[in-house]
Write a structure and sequence with these properties.
Number of strands: 48
Low-confidence stretches: 93-126, 219-230, 1047-1056, 1068-1072
Pfam families: Helicase_C (PF00271), SNF2-rel_dom (PF00176), SNF2_assoc (PF08455)
Protein name: Snf2 family helicase
Mean pLDDT: 83
GO molecular function: ATP binding; hydrolase activity; zinc ion binding
Keywords: Hydrolase, Metal-binding, Zinc, Zinc-finger
Number of helices: 38
CATH architecture of the largest domain: 3-Layer(aba) Sandwich
Number of domains: 7
Distance between the termini: 45 Å
CATH class of the largest domain: Alpha Beta
CATH topology of the largest domain: Rossmann fold
Shape: flat
Helix content: 25-40%
Length: 1072
C-alpha cells in the first residue's frame, strides 16, 4: 500500500473490508495483477498491481480524481486478513494455491428433542361410581341493584349406590382442576376420586363444557361477575352465550330448576319479541286520561338483557332494554302503577310515553280518542332575517291550519275545539338543532350574532341545508344577496404570451378585478369559498373552479400572481391548455395554440431535413428530428428515450446539422458521453454530417485546455463525463447552443460532481439521450429535468408527493419514447426465454448454509439496525448470487461444479452447431474468466470485453466479431452494456440477473437493433429455488414503473428496496 494514501482513506477501506464488501479476488500471473470485485453503489472492479509499483486501478470516480480510493485499500486489507500477499514474484510459474476462503459452517437444525410421552393409564373398566346434579341460580352481586344479578351454575356430587345423598361442590375451580388431573378432592369431609372414569358420558360432557367455559371466562364475563365468582366459589358465573348453550343442554331434563328471589323457574326457555306487560289507557272526564301499567316480571338481568318471568326468560333488544329500565325506574317512584294525564299533557303522552311502551308490548287505545284529539302532520317553517348585528329566526310549528310559533302574534288560537296532538319529539329535535347551531332565546326570539367569514360559509353550506332536511326555510332578501353560487359566477380566462411566460387574466362576474387575486389565492389554498370585501360569500365548489384549482396546483411551484393575472412558464403550455378546456369561457392567442399543437403533434410539423445529411431517415426518426427542432424553437429541453438500437444518434446529428444550415448554430454544441463512446460519436458525425466541425476533448490537462480555448470555430465538441467533471471551470466560460447528454441515466444522482458540472454549463437547450431514463425510482426523472429545464419540477420533497399520473402529464411533450416492435416492422423478432437449472448437490449445500446464515442475521434486525447494516446484508446477497453462478467465484479449491455453468456450456455448443453466434453477459468478471477457460477446453473461440479493456481496443473487438471472427463474445454487463453495435450475434445469454432490468435491456439491445437481419433469441439463466426467482419478480415491478410513467396514465410508485423486500427475496431457496 502506497505511503501517500491518506489515513482517512485507509480507515474507510478498513471499514469496507470489515463489512464484507470485498466479494472476490483472483490472480493473473501473466499480467502480475489481482482482479477483485467490491460492492460500492454498484459492483466495482478493482485491479491490484502485484509488482512493487503498486499501480492499482478502480472504476470509481474517486479513483479517477486521486489515483487511489478506499476500494483498492479494502482489497489489500481483505487479502491480508486471509494471509494472501499482493506481491506476485516474477519467478512464480503457476498460480499457487491461495489459502481457502473459509465458508460458513452449514448449520443444520438438530430438531426438537422428542417429547417424553406420558405412560397411559391402563383402565380395566369404566367405573361410573359418581354422579352430578346441577342447577342455575340467579345470583345477586349488589345489595341495591337487582338488575346487576348474574346466572351461576352450581353442582352437587353423589355416589350411585346412595343416590339420595348428594353434597355441594363448594369450590368449582378446585373441582375442575382435580378432574383434569384425575385426582382426589375433599368435599364435605369425604375424599372423592374425580376423573373421567368416575362419571358417565352425560356428566363428562357437562364437565368438558364447563372446562371450555372456564378458559374463556375472563374474556366474556365482566369484572362485577368475576368478583362474585371469587367471593362465592361454588358458582361458575355464566355469560349470556354460555347460559344459552346450557339451556339447550338442559331442555330435556325435567329436574332442571332456576332458583333466585324466592322463585323457581322450571322451564329454561328464552322468548323474543314483545313482552307480556299489561298497559291500559282510560278516559277520565272529557279531555283527561289515566295510564295503568302492570309489570309481572321477577327481575331484569342487565348483563344478559333478559327479563326473568315464571314461564322463562324474555330477551330484549337494546331499544327494548333501554325503555324497560326507564319504565321500572319510573314505576318505583309511584305509590301505584297509575299515571294521570291532563288535556295539556296528552301530546307529551303520545309523543314520548306510548311510542316507548309500543316497543315493549301490544296494547289498544280507547275509541273516544278519535273524536277528542285533532291529528295533523307536522310542517315546520323557519324564517331567517337580519336585525342589526344579529341573525334572527322565527320558528312556526304548523298542524293543518293551526300554528304554534315562538313569536305569539303568529300563533293560532285553538279554543274549545279539542286537543291538537303535537309531535313533541320532532319539535324538540328542531329546537335542539337550533341550540346546536348557537341560537339562544331572547324576548321570545331565537337569535345569534350574525356569522362572518367561515361561520357565514357554514351557515349557507351546512346549517341551512341541514334545516332544509326537516323544515321549509325562508331567507330574507338581504341574506340571499350574501350568497354567490359558483355556477352563476364562473371564472373567465384569457391567455397572452409574454416572452418565456404566459399571462392568464381572470375575470369573475360580480367580483371586482382587484379582488380576483384574493379569490385565486383562496382557491390555491383549497378553500371551498371566498368572502369578498362586501361580505358576500363566493362558492368555489363548482367543477370549473375545481379544474382551475387542479391547474393551479400543478403549476403552483412556478406560478406568479399579479393582480388579476397569473404568470406561468411556457413549458407548462400543455398542462395549461388541458386545464383551460374545463373553463366555461377562455380566450387564447394564436401563438399559444400553435405551441400546444406543435408540442402535441410534432410529426405533423413541416420541417425540412438538412441538405448535407448523408443518411435517409425512417419515418419515426423524422418525427424525432422534428421533435428536436420544435423543442429547440421554443428553447425547451427534452429526453429522447427511444428503445436501444433505434438511432438516437442519427436523429441528434440531423438536428445539429439542421441548426447549422438554418444559421442557428452560432455557438458550439457539446455532446457529453461515456468515454467508451467518444470515438463512436466522432465517426458517426464524420460519416453522416461531414460539414459539422467536431472536436474530441481528450488528452492531458494542457492539451484539453488548448482544445477548449479553440472551440470558437467548432460546431460540436465531444467530451466524456469524467473529463467534463475535471474541466468544468473552463466549460462554464463557454456559451453553448445545445448540450447533448448521451446515456443520460449516468447522471441520475443530483448530488454528484458530474451532475454539478453539467448544471454549470451555459446553454439555451439541453437534451438527454437514454433508453432508460428511469432505472429504479421516479426521482431519477426529477434529476434529469433539473439539468434539462431547471424549475420544471417542484422541489424534490414536493415532487415525491405527486401522483405518477401528474408526472406523466407534465413530461408528455418533453419525452419522446418509441420501442422497436412499434416502429421497426422489418426488424426480426426478439424471443426472450427464462431457462432454469438445478444447483448441483455440493452447490446446494453451500447455498443453503449461506442462506440460513443471512436469514438468521436478518431475523435479529429491526428497521434501524437494518439501515446500518444494509451494505453488509447486500454483500451477503451477492454471495448467494455468486453461488448460483459458481461457488468457485469466492471459494478456493471448490470442485462441486455448477448447474448453471453446465447449462450455459451446453447451450453455447447447441447454438454453435446450429450456426448461431452468442453474446454472453455477466456482471461477475470472475465468472466470465471461468467460462473463457471452459470454452477453450471445448475448442470454442471467444472474445472477452471487461471494464479495463481500452476504448480503441473495444471497437476493434466489435468489428472483428461482426465480421464473423469467433462465435462467442464474453462481455461484462456493466462495462459493455451500452454503446456497442453487435448485430453479428443472434443469441444473447444473460448468465446472471441484475437488479435493474433496464441494464439487461441495454445489453440485449447490442444485438437487437437496426442492421440485425436474424431473429434474436435471449436466454435468461436462473437457478431454480433460489433468490434469482424473486429477483426476477422484482424486475417485473421495475419494468412496470418505467413503462407506465412513459406510456400510460396509471403508474404505481416504486421505492428502493426495503427491509421487507429483502426478507421476501431471502424466502426463496429455503427448502431442501
Amino acid at each position: 500500500m502506497k505511503w501517500s494514501i491518506p489515513e482517512k482513506v485507509i480507515e474507510e477501506g478498513r471499514e469496507c473490508a470489515k463489512e464484507g464488501r470485498v466479494v472476490s479476488w483472483s490472480k493473473n500471473l501473466e499480467r502480475r495483477v489481482w482482479y477483485a470485485e467490491v460492492i460500492g453503489s454498484d459492483m466495482l472492479y478493482v485491479e491490484l498491481d502485484g509488482t512493487a509499483k503498486e499501480d492499482d486501478v478502480c472504476q470509481c470516480m474517486y479513483w479517477e480524481q486521486h489515483g487511489y480510493c478506499k476500494h483498492t485499500v479494502a482489497v489489500e486489507l481483505a487479502m491480508r486478513e486471509q494471509r494472501v500477499s499482493r506481491f506476485i514474484p516474477r519467478t512464480e510459474l503457476k498460480e499457487t494455491d491461495a489459502p481457502k476462503v473459509i465458508s460458513p459452517a452449514v448449520v443444520f437444525t438438530k430438531g426438537f428433542e422428542r417429547l417424553q410421552e406420558a405412560e397411559l393409564r391402563k383402565l380395566i373398566r369404566q367405573t361410573d361410581d359418581l354422579f352430578l346434579t346441577y342447577g342455575i341460580d340467579i345470583v345477586p352481586t349488589s345489595e341495591y341493584h337487582d338488575e346487576q344479578s348474574v346466572l351461576g351454575l352450581h353442582l352437587r356430587i353423589g355416589r350411585r349406590d346412595t343416590p339420595n345423598k348428594t353434597y355441594v361442590v363448594k369450590n368449582m375451580d378446585e373441582f375442575l382442576e382435580a378432574y383434569k388431573q384425575d385426582r382426589e378432592i375433599r368435599i364435605s369431609t369425604i375424599n372423592w376420586k374425580v376423573g373421567a372414569t368416575a362419571f358417565n358420558s352425560e356428566d363428562n360432557a357437562l364437565i368438558h363444557s364447563m372446562l371450555a367455559m372456564k378458559e374463556q371466562q375472563t374474556l366474556v364475563v365482566n369484572s362485577r361477575s368475576q368478583a362474585k365468582s371469587v367471593i362465592d366459589r361454588r358458582y361458575m358465573i355464566l355469560s349470556k352465550q354460555e347460559a344459552r348453550e346450557l339451556f339447550d343442554h338442559f331442555k330435556h331434563d325435567k329436574a332442571f330448576v332456576i332458583k333466585g328471589f324466592d322463585t323457581q323457574i322450571k322451564r329454561a326457555v328464552i322468548h323474543q319479541g314483545k313482552i307480556p306487560l299489561t298497559v291500559t289507557l282510560s278516559p277520565v272526564g272529557l279531555t283527561d286520561y289515566e295510564l295503568t301499567i302492570i309489570d309481572p316480571f321477577i327481575v331484569f338481568l342487565e348483563e344478559y338483557r333478559w327479563l326473568v318471568g315464571t314461564d322463562g326468560f324474555y330477551e330484549l333488544t337494546e331499544e327494548q332494554a333501554a325503555s324497560y329500565q326507564v319504565l321500572t325506574q319510573m314505576l318505583k317512584r309511584l305509590d301505584k302503577p297509575t299515571i294521570y294525564y291532563t288535556k295539556d299533557q296528552v301530546s307529551s303522552l303520545f309523543s314520548y310515553v306510548l311510542p316507548q311502551l309500543a316497543l315493549l308490548c301490544d296494547f289498544e287505545l280507547p275509541e273516544s280518542l278519535d273524536d277528542e284529539v285533532l291529528r295533523y302532520p307536522l310542517d315546520i317553517k323557519l324564517y331567517f332575517h337580519k336585525e342589526e348585528a344579529s341573525l334572527v329566526v322565527r320558528v312556526d310549528f304548523c298542524y293543518g291550519d293551526y300554528v304554534f310559533s315562538n313569536e305569539p302574534k303568529y300563533s293560532t288560537s285553538i279554543g274549545e275545539e279539542g286537543v291538537v296532538l303535537r309531535d313533541k319529539v320532532q319539535e324538540e329535535r328542531l329546537l335542539t338543532l337550533l341550540r346546536h347551531y348557537g341560537y339562544g332565546t331572547y324576548a321570545q326570539k331565537y337569535s345569534k350574532t350574525f356569522p362572518n367569514d367561515l361561520e357565514r360559509f357554514y351557515f349557507f353550506t351546512r346549517e341551512i341545508p341541514t334545516f332544509e332536511k326537516y323544515t321549509t326555510v325562508h331567507l330574507s332578501d338581504d341574506i340571499k344577496a350574501l350568497y354567490l353560487t359558483a355556477d352563476e359566477h364562473q371564472p373567465k380566462a384569457r391567455i397572452i404570451e409574454n416572452g418565456s411566460w404566459f399571462d392568464i387574466q381572470f375575470d369573475i362576474s360580480s367580483v371586482d378585478e382587484t379582488e380576483v387575486n384574493d379569490v385565486l389565492s383562496s382557491l390555491m389554498q383549497n378553500k371551498e369559498y371566498h368572502q369578498l370585501r362586501n361580505g358576500q360569500v363566493l362558492m368555489l365548489d363548482d367543477e370549473a373552479y375545481k379544474e382551475t384549482n387542479q391547474m393551479l396546483r400543478l403549476l403552483r411551484e412556478d406560478i406568479r400572481l399579479d393582480g388579476n393575472r397569473l404568470e406561468v412558464p411556457t413549458y407548462r403550455s400543455l398542462v395549461l391548455s388541458e386545464a383551460m378546456t374545463q373553463l366555461s369561457d377562455v380566450e387564447t392567442s394564436d401563438y399559444f395554440e400553435t405551441m400546444v399543437d406543435e408540442l402535441t403533434h410534432p410529426e405533423k410539423v413541416e420541417v425540412s431535413l438538412p441538405n448535407k445529411l448523408n443518411a435517409t431517415l425512417r419515418d419515426y426518426q423524422l418525427t424525432g428530428f422534428k421533435w428536436f427542432k420544435i423543442l429547440s424553437k421554443y428553447h425547451f429541453g427534452g429526453i429522447l428515450a427511444d428503445d436501444m438500437g433505434l438511432g438516437k444518434t442519427i436523429q441528434t446529428i440531423a438536428y445539429l446539422l439542421s441548426e447549422k444550415e438554418d444559421g442557428e448554430l452560432t455557438k458550439p454544441s457539446v455532446i457529453v458521453a461515456p468515454a467508451s463512446l467518444l470515438y463512436n460519436w466522432q465517426l458517426e458525425l464524420e460519416k453522416f454530417a461531414p460539414s459539422l466541425k467536431s472536436k474530441l476533448i481528450i488528452g492531458g490537462k494542457e492539451e484539453r485546455n488548448e482544445q477548449i480555448a479553440s472551440l470558437d470555430d467548432v460546431d460540436v465538441a465531444i467530451i466524456s463525463y469524467s473529463t467534463l467533471r475535471q474541466d468544468s471551470t473552463e466549460f462554464r466560460k463557454i456559451d453553448c447552443h445545445s448540450v447533448i447528454l448521451d446515456e443520460a441515466q449516468m447522471v441520475k444522482n443530483s448530488t454528484t460532481k458530474t451532475f454539478q458540472s453539467i448544471s454549470g454549463l451555459k446553454s439555451d437547450r439541453v437534451f438527454a439521450l437514454s433508453g432508460t431514463p428511469i432505472e429504479n425510482r421516479l426521482e431519477e426523472l426529477w434529476s434529469l429535468f433539473k439539468l434539462l429545464m431547471p424549475g420544471f419540477f417542484p422541489p424534490k420533497r414536493r415532487f415525491k408527493q405527486l401522483e405518477t399520473t401528474e408526472v406523466a402529464t407534465m413530461i408528455k411533450p418533453f419525452v419522446l419514447r418509441r420501442v422497436k416492435k412499434e416502429v421497426l416492422q422489418d426488424l426480426p423478432d426478439k424471443v426472450e426465454t427464462d431457462r432454469y437449472s438445478q444447483l448441483t448437490g455440493e452447490q446446494k449445500t453451500v447455498y443453503v448454509a449461506y442462506l440460513k446464515q443471512i436469514q438468521e442475521s436478518m431475523s435479529q434486525l429491526n428497521e434501524k439496525d437494518f439501515n446500518k447494516q444494509r451494505m453488509s446484508i447486500l454483500a451477503g446477497i451477492t454471495r448467494l448470487r455468486q453461488i448460483c453462478c459458481h461457488p468457485g467465484l469466492f471459494i478456493d479449491g471448490y470442485t462441486g461444479g455448477s448447474g448453471k455453468m453446465d447449462q450455459a456450456l451446453d447451450l453455447i455448443e447447441q447454438a454453435k452447431s446450429n450456426g448461431r453466434r452468442v453474446l454472453l453477459f455477466s456482471q461477475f468478471t470472475g465468472m466470465l474468466s471461468i467460462l473463457e477457460d471452459e470454452l477453450a477446453k471445448r475448442d470454442v473461440g471467444t472474445f472477452y470485453l471487461r471494464g479495463s479493456t481500452p476504448v480503441k481496443e473495444r471497437q476493434k473487438l466489435v468489428e472483428r466479431f461482426n465480421r464473423g471472427e469467433k462465435d462467442v463474445f464474453l462481455i461484462s454487463l456493466k462495462a459493455g452494456g451500452t454503446g456497442l453495435n453487435l448485430t453479428g450475434a443472434d443469441t444473447v445469454i444473460l448468465y446472471d440477473l441484475w437488479w435493474n432490468p433496464a441494464v439487461e435491456e441495454q445489453a440485449t439491445g447490442r444485438a437487437h437493433r437496426i442492421g440485425q437481419t436474424k431473429k434474436v433469441e435471449v436466454w435468461r439463466l436462473l437457478a431454480e429455488g433460489t433468490i434469482e426467482e424473486r429477483m426476477n419478480q422484482l424486475q417485473l415491478e421495475k419494468k412496470a414503473l418505467f413503462q407506465k410513467v412513459l406510456h400510460s396514465e396509471d403508474a404505481p410508485e416504486l421505492s428502493s428496496m426495503t427491509m421487507d423486500d429483502i426478507k421476501h427475496i431471502l424466502a426463496i431457496g429455503d427448502e431442501d
